[in-house]
Fold each of these.
Amino acid sequence: MGHIVATIIPIFSLVILGTVARSRGFLPPAFLGPANRLVYYLAIPAMIFRAIANASLTRQFNPTVVWLTLLALIVLFFICWVSSRLLRVAAPIRGAFIQCSFHGNLGYIGLAVAFYHLGADGLARASILAAFVMILQNFLAVVVLQSHRKGDAEGGRLSAVAGKIVANPVIVSAICGILFSIADIPMPLVMDRSLQILSGLALPMALLIIGGSLSLKLIKARFAAVLGTCLLKLLILPALGIVLFRMTDQVPEDYLPAMILLASPTATIAYVMAREMGADSDFAVAAISATTLMSAATFSFWLSVG
């Protein structure tokens, strides 16, 4: 339990610090956008590429865990779709509700927890898994948002959204890292140290940005639906994963990185995709804020169970 506390408290202390810094004017809205692009397009990809490129795929890649993780995500996707009807979620927010209930924040929160709880080995395993999970959850997000799109929103063109998924820097960096590792090319020391320095910016800046983007006001306005999202995303999805991993006798070393990714709160890009495809972006902000705050407790629970 001491190790779990030592993992969770520092991570969410930075999230809270980001919220306080925004309220004090240290993280103004004008700063958050460029800072997010810096982390998303440079720092996080550098960290992922370096972790995977220096990893041993023969030892750290378990295809069974990958397929089980994707299966858990697909099962939850259909549960979310059915739940949105059973819970009578209002039609205008239904698309955003379903997306936010399965679309996890792998790059900013998931990898941070994997690194600080499992170390460099766990980060490498989680980064490899993240590439597969991101491809699937982005595809499912497009499906659900397109199905529930309001009218002909200008940003709702499938080709534009599909292009962003293909060019996703996390997916691209993970694939490049896998190819680099398969080729068994020794990374030059200068390149490794440069990536290490840039990688050092990724997690702390990402956590501060998340804290600076939270909104308690929007949570209150959509409390019931947001609570449903928290239940689906933070409890049911990782529970599905745990059941599948244990039914197939996977070892904790292999499945813990996957469980951490499944237990991650709603992705910040869920807001961007909701806005791009004409869904309720305010609900997305509320879901991101609520799941991020609640994940401090649920991560502690799942790490103790795992």
Amino acid sequence: MFQNNSHNHDHEHHHDTSSMTDKKLFWSVFLNLTITAAEFIGGFISNSLALLSDATHNLNDSMAILISYIARKISKKQKDEKRTYGYKRVEILAAFLNTVFLIAIAAILIFEGIDKLMNPGEINGQLMLWVSVVGLAGNLITAILLFRDSKENLNLKATFIHIMSDTLSSVMIIVGAIFIMNYNWYILDPIFTFVISTYILFESFNLIKEISNILVQGKPADIDTFKIKEEIEKLSYVENVHHIHVWTTDGIDLYFEGHVSLVQECDYKLDSYIKEINKILEEKFSINHSTIQLEQKLCE
């Protein structure tokens, strides 16, 4: 049995415009801290749990964005002897931590909402309204800053979900404040808290599922290994493909490992075969990191 290993490492990665993204993260932290301070003060004065909940959530968002910023810096470090894949997975770990914190915040809000539902108190609707309007404006600006990058990066996606949940909560608080001002419907405060928390939990669990799949080296959802096997086995010199593994380190770069059995017993075109297989992997499946083991009988 003759075995030939090949590694194709195409370094034309899907990089962000890093400096621009880092600037966006910086301004996002600044905006969120400003909103947090305003909502904490406004929440205590107005006696609004929804506003205090949103302030707590915003504080968590600021920490999430800060973690994202630090993780991005670390992930840019070059691979070394100890970290042969580099540091890109640091961003995935940061996304995991962000999401776990978000779930914890949502759980706290639900328990506080239950207490508020059983023991409602008078709320200053006018102050609640103005503070939530400021919060909404800040959240919308932050969401716009991060929207594009969140589509290509799981860490930034986790941060973007933080911001979107805050935006939703700000809208609901504005609606609640209007009803409280006009009809004294104080019960809306804990009810809206429940709705906001439910949204947070729903989005967070979906993201946790996606992140966990990456951390356990699971196959990316949009990759069909049977299709890969089928495409490679169409080649005239390939008998079968087995031991197929496809994974990602950061949700962007894809890695392939597989054994390819050749039809002929003795063949010297191995390099050209590997190049052709790599071309299929890259052009049809966007896989630019591959380890291919060619298997054939020993030549006599």
